[in-house]
Amino acid sequence: MSIWATLRIAIKALYANKMRTILTMLGIIIGVASVITMVSIGQGVSKSVESNIASLGTNLLTISPSTLKSGGVYQSGMSVQTLTVSDCDAIGDECPLIAYASPMVRRNMQVVCGNQNWNTVVYGVSYNYGNIRNWEVDQGEFLSDQDVKGSAKVCVIGTTVAENLFAGESPIGQVIRVQKVPFRVVGVLQEKGTGMGGDQDDCIMVPYTTALSRISRMKYIQSIVCSIANEDETEDAISEITALLRQRHRLQDNDEDDFTIRSQADIAETMAQTTGMLTLFLSAIAFISLLVGGIGIMNIMLVSVTERIREIGIRMALGARGSDVLRQFLFESMALSLLGGTIGIISGIILSRIAAHFMNMQTVVSLEAIAISFIFSAGVGVFFGFYPAWQASKLDPIEALRHE
Amino acid sequence: MKEKKKVIEVKSLEKIYDSGEVRVHALRGVSLSVEEGDLVAIMGPSGSGKSTFMNILGCLDKLSKGEYFLDGHNVSKMSKDELADIRNDLIGFVFQGFNLLSRTSALENVQLPLLYSREKSYSAAERDELAKKSLDAVGLSGRYYHMPNQISGGQQQRVAIARALIKNPAMILADEPTGNLDSRTSVEIMNIFQTMNRTKGITVVLVTHSNEIAEYADRVIVFKDGRVIEDRRNEHPLNAAEVLKNMPLPEDD
Q: Do residues B219 and B232 touch, judged by C-beta distance below 8 A?
């Protein structure tokens, strides 16, 4: 029997039981559509995370004091807060691979201006922090060398802070009180939008010298942020800094580092792993629903075989071999799952568009996901259709003909 | 008179159903042959083994002992698939319950044997043409696209006969073909069998328990307890066409 004739019989049988066919296909449609939607959401999240990280700059290095204490006992005389301003200066001066280095202290704080107040993050940084982050100033100017050296009570604010405290007025020259210390606004940063770690425009930059003496009253800085002159030399830059800091902190060869250097690439990798897990998790759930759809197909095919035992008997009496019957039912379940798979792919693409629109996020419908779910749905048809079809092909023609 | 070709030849045929606990000896040594162009009626009470014999003749069941030659092929040793091919090539079945596929037009029902043909594959156009010819031959020219539930029992049986004839089989095997039909329609069906038999020389073997139907056959074989107890020739078989002429027409016609 020709493949075309078999296919025609299969489609006719499916058409004869429209309602049942649609309900059975629904399982596959939902399965395939959810695989495609979930994978596209997962990949969309990964992609937006990746681009966010890229927008932060991939040439950033953050050096923070090591908080590693597990099992180890700290020797006397050593402090957890190990980074100093002179460490930062040394990195800036002595490491040729580093373009800029700035100390950083950061704190969440309530800031007040007249009768307005706002809760934001206050960063104590050096005058070159703008260069490190590639930040532009929209109005006024960034902190200057003199501001830092003279512990000036000046600040540069992000647009969110400007909007909330000054509501349309020009903030330049206005005074913001941070812990009762008045800071004069000298500049407003260009808007950067929402990204990793929330609103990037919700911040206030003050000279770190002022932050240390007036706000946090500490000698130690929380971290050092630096930018690498050439992105390709990240590894070399890290070892350069490591060597320098070990020497400055007088660490013995067998001592652990008392600081941690994290590059933006590390963070990107961690995030990629997390979002990869997310994608995997979502697709696992979706695959389960595809599996359930497959079991639905098997169920219906078993019913269909039982219902059509007499038909099978007639076909066998007229010369159908067991293999002809097997093929007929296998084609039927494959047609069922392929048709369901195709509709599922289309609805999956539409669903992920809708998700992208309403959840205000990026979704990536990948060809791989489409190909995999299409092949998988065909596989489901063969796999779950085989047992019922095989049962049909093993029927005894006489028994089948007598079946009522 | 020259020796006619033997379509069926069975030698000491035995069939034992062994279901583990019970052994049923359905056929206890049957030997007979049917010549080409014969119209044979097989009779016998239920449990006589005639149905088992039919199933074996129709290559639907395997025999336990003995030999069976169908149109010169030794069927006794054939596998399931080979039997399926033999059924397709050499046998046309007509059943008591018509056994047409529901929701399938007369034309498509008649085409079924062509779909499973292995020696030759038929195009859709060829299939349609042959099926129409076959339906025309049983007087159903206007019923190509009717579904089985849209036509009468007699017409359904004619569709089944058209299906049995489509591949020009060596024989037609009819199992109680008139069992579900009224007497006039039964004679009409017998008329078709007789016409096919007389004009085209097609061998017909039919199982019946009606003596009236057996009157139309050239030869009557009677089974009892798994054996042939009577095998006689009808010197003057009834002519269905003539019987029809003398029958009153149905009232609603």
A: yes
Quickly state the pLDDT bin for B187 (edges 50, 70, 90).
very high
Q: Which of A257, A286, A304 is the last residue of a domain?
A: A257
With CB atoms and an 8 Å threshold, state whether B116 touches A5.
no
Judging contacts by C-beta atoms under 8 Å, the chain A residues touching residue B117 are 319
Find the angle CA(B77)-CA(B82)-CA(B87) to the nearest 5 degrees.
Answer: 110
Q: CB neighbours (10 Å) of residue A194?
A: 12
High-pLDDT (> 90) share of chain A, %: 21
Domain that holds residue A166: 67-257
* Total number of domains in chain A: 2
- What is the model's pLDDT at position A196? 56
Mutate to test the interface with A, among B101, B102, B103 (most CBs of A within 10 A): B101
* A265 occurs within a structural domain: no
Rg of chain B over all Cα atoms, to the nearest angstrom: 18
- Domain co-membership, A105 together with A155: yes
Q: Which two tokens stand for residue A260?
A: 């941690």
- Is it the case that residue B120 has pLDDT exceeding 60? yes
CB–CB contact A319 B60 (8 Å)? no
CB contact under 8 A, A322 and B81: yes
Residue with tokens 């299939």: B127
Domain finish residue from A214, A236, A257: A257
E strands in A18-157: 60-65, 98-113, 116-125, 137-140, 154-157
User: B112, A315: Cβ pair inside 8 Å?
Assistant: yes
Q: Is residue A149 domain-shared with residue A226, that is, in the same domain? A: yes
Question: What pTM was estimated for this model as a whole?
Answer: 0.72
The strand pairing partners of B223, in sequence order, are: B228
Is the CB of residue A315 less than 8 Å away from at least one CB of chain B? yes
Same domain, A245 and A98: yes
Say if residue A239 is in the same domain as residue A102: yes
Q: Which domains are delineated in chain B? A: 36-63+77-246 (3.40.50.300)
Same domain, A113 and A191: yes
> Given the structure tokens 């568009």, which residue do they identify?
A353
